[in-house]
TrEMBL record, chain A:
Its main location: membrane. This is Multidrug ABC transporter ATP-binding protein. GO terms for cellular component: plasma membrane. The keyword rRNA-binding does not apply. It is a peripheral membrane protein. It is found in: Cell membrane. It comes from Streptomyces lacrimifluminis.
UniProtKB/TrEMBL annotation, chain B:
GO terms for cellular component: ATP-binding cassette (ABC) transporter complex. It is found in: Cell membrane; Membrane. GO terms for molecular function: ABC-type transporter activity. Its main location: membrane. This is Transport permease protein. The keyword Transferase does not apply. One of its GO terms (biological process) is response to antibiotic.
């Protein structure tokens, strides 16, 4: 989806967040989200997703940088922004002793332009649970209640922090469908997730956060394309990496070696795979555990995570060989 | 599933507060522990005060059984129905992330705190009214010569206790520890603010110090409303002390109140 440059519903510039203990959770994050776009923030636990989203929701002022939601500062101009946003926190937020219906009625009374509570609960399939206390709901039902209340006021901007964590496969699909419908109706959605499938399926654009910084950003296709494809196999006995065809003509841009297993990275998968297999055929060797894999979001994500752990490993004096090339 | 556009109107502070108070009242009635402490303790405890004071002590202090028990009851009501109950409420709402969730919505911070506190505050005001009527009927307490002092004192007391409860909650990690962190103010107030022991029977220097405690001006004003022996100067002093504590605690809440659990 093309972003209209003049309609950035969310604009984040060089955002920083530092916690009381001095921990810098967000270290200079910039991105923007256009109207009617679904934007996903991906990252491992502790990457800074929730810390970032909370600044967008206006729950805390940033330590540095700038946030604009619908053209306003969500922290200092709370009264202007809040009636136009819907928020689903990562967890909890409802008194356990109230029923689903009482909770929805309370939120409806505090939400401008609220749709009828029954309608909001029906959107997430909770209409039969109205008289059940929140403490008796399953984890998935609580997520759905949270989503229903975030949708209560037909918000222009929706912040969903891990909306499908704890949901079963069916509930997850239903949530995705609902989010897509909202997007098609013009709602701007910012969501965080650690399900790659969710980001790949749902997001128009995404950013992968790592240690408080954006490690990769773009459409799912762009982020994937920036990542190399991979060929891995076990070296035949008696062979070393140096015995393989020269990497340059093969189109291989880097490799990792872990015991006997070699992992080649390439942006020209067809050429590299063909030449490698021809070489194996001519040499009369079998490449055990051969795995040829085109780039995926999962690969991109794992690679970003691995870069950090690889760095840690080499600092710890590990013997694993890592030949890195920076991918822009 | 379909996302149909709703037709609700823009919220007002009053409308938002009404919705929150309704939910909080439901929760207040469902929490049996808080309910018993808030409703019955202030009605029962004053009788222990009665047994601790002899009639001669009372006469020397210029008090009678009514002007002893009524201010004590109001003090117990403020401490149990408002202060202790609300420390628990604020901690519970914070730890269940209810406060954080509410702050993502349209309610302003002051509305969240006021709305959460209102059921307890109303309980205390109704209780005080019933106690005054009860004492008048059962203990032959006369019509107060200066009722405005009681009204001022009670309102100051309620606002102060709400703010002090919010402040105490900020230093309590769990609802269990809240029962401990709320003890110091309660004990100091029982003993030093004229609730269990009227200031009139304390040594002068101790009494002078005790006048500066947060709840003392509240009790002094309520008692003064019925005894009628508070000079204008004394009443003004009590009001100013009460105002100072209220302002200080409200300021402290704005500065230190915790909306989210510690990580």
């Amino acid at each position: 989806m093309e972003t209209n440059e003049h309609e950035h519903v969310i604009e984040v510039t060089d955002l920083r967040r530092v916690y009381g203990g001095g921990f810098e959770a967000v270290r200079g994050v910039s991105f923007s989200v256009g109207r009617g776009e679904i934007f996903a923030l991906l990252g491992t636990n502790g990457a800074g997703k929730t810390s970032t989203v909370e600044l967008l929701e206006g729950l805390a002022p940033p330590a540095g940088g700038r946030v604009r939601v619908l053209g306003h500062d969500p922290y200092t101009e709370r009264a202007v922004v809040r009636p136009r946003t819907g928020v689903m926190l990562q967890e909890g937020g409802f008194p356990s002793e109230l029923t689903v219906g009482e909770t929805a009625r309370m939120w409806a009374g505090c939400t401008s332009g609220a749709r009828p509570e029954a309608e909001a609960l029906a959107l997430v399939g909770l209409e039969r649970r109205t008289d059940v206390r929140v403490k008796q709901l399953s984890g998935g039902e609580r997520r759905r209640l949270d989503l229903a209340l975030a949708l209560l006021g037909n918000p222009e901007v929706l912040f969903l922090d891990e909306p499908t964590t704890g949901l079963d496969a069916e509930g997850r699909r239903a949530t995705w469908e609902l989010v897509r419908e909202l997007r098609d109706g013009g709602t701007t959605v910012l969501l965080t997730t650690h399900y790659l499938e969710e980001a790949e399926d749902l997001a128009d654009r995404l950013a992968i956060l790592h240690e408080g910084r954006i490690a990769a950003a773009g459409t799912p296709a762009e982020v994937t394309a920036s990542q190399p494809s991979r060929i891995s196999f076990e070296l035949p006995s008696g062979y070393f990496v140096g015995d393989l065809p020269a990497f340059g003509p093969l189109g291989v841009s880097g490799y990792e070696e872990e015991g006997r297993v070699v992992r080649l990275r390439t942006h020209e998968l067809q050429r590299a795979a063909t030449r490698l297999l021809v070489w194996a055929e001519e040499a009369g060797v079998t490449l055990r555990g051969l795995d040829v894999r085109s780039a995926s979001l999962e690969e991109a994500f794992l690679r970003i995570a691995r870069q950090a752990s690889g760095k840690d490993a080499s600092e710890a004096g590990s013997s694993s060989v890592v030949a890195e090339e920076r991918v822009a | 599933m379909s996302a149909v556009v709703g037709s609700g109107s823009t919220t007002t502070p009053a409308g938002r507060m009404r919705a929150l108070v309704r939910a909080e009242s439901t929760l207040f009635l469902r929490n049996k522990g808080t309910l018993v402490a808030a409703l019955f303790v202030p009605l029962v405890l004053p009788f222990s005060v009665r047994s601790a004071m002899s009639d001669t002590d009372l006469k020397e202090a210029g008090l009678n059984i009514g002007t002893l028990i009524l201010p004590a009851s109001v003090g117990f009501s403020l401490l149990f129905a408002v202060y202790a109950a609300l420390v628990g409420v604020f901690v519970a709402r914070r730890e269940e992330l209810v406060l954080k969730r509410l702050r993502t919505g349209e309610l302003r911070d002051i509305e969240i705190l006021t709305g959460s506190a209102l059921p307890a505050a109303v309980t205390c005001l109704v209780q005080s009214l019933l106690l005054a009527v009860g004492c008048a009927v059962l203990l032959d307490l006369d019509v107060p010569p200066a009722p405005q002092l009681a009204v001022i004192g009670l309102l100051l007391g309620v606002v102060m206790c709400v703010a002090l409860a919010a402040l105490t909650a900020s230093f309590s990690r769990t609802t269990e520890s809240a029962q401990v962190t709320s003890l110091p103010l309660m004990l100091v107030s029982f003993l030093g603010s004229g609730i269990t022991v009227p200031l009139e029977v304390l040594p002068d220097r101790l009494a002078t110090f005790c006048e500066l405690l947060p709840l003392t001006p509240v009790i002094t004003l309520v008692r003064g409303a019925w005894t009628g022996d508070l000079s204008g100067y004394e009443a003004l002093g009590a009001v100013l002390t009460g105002l100072a504590w209220t302002a200080l605690s409200v300021f402290a809440v704005r500065r230190w109140f915790r909306w989210e659990p510690r990580r």
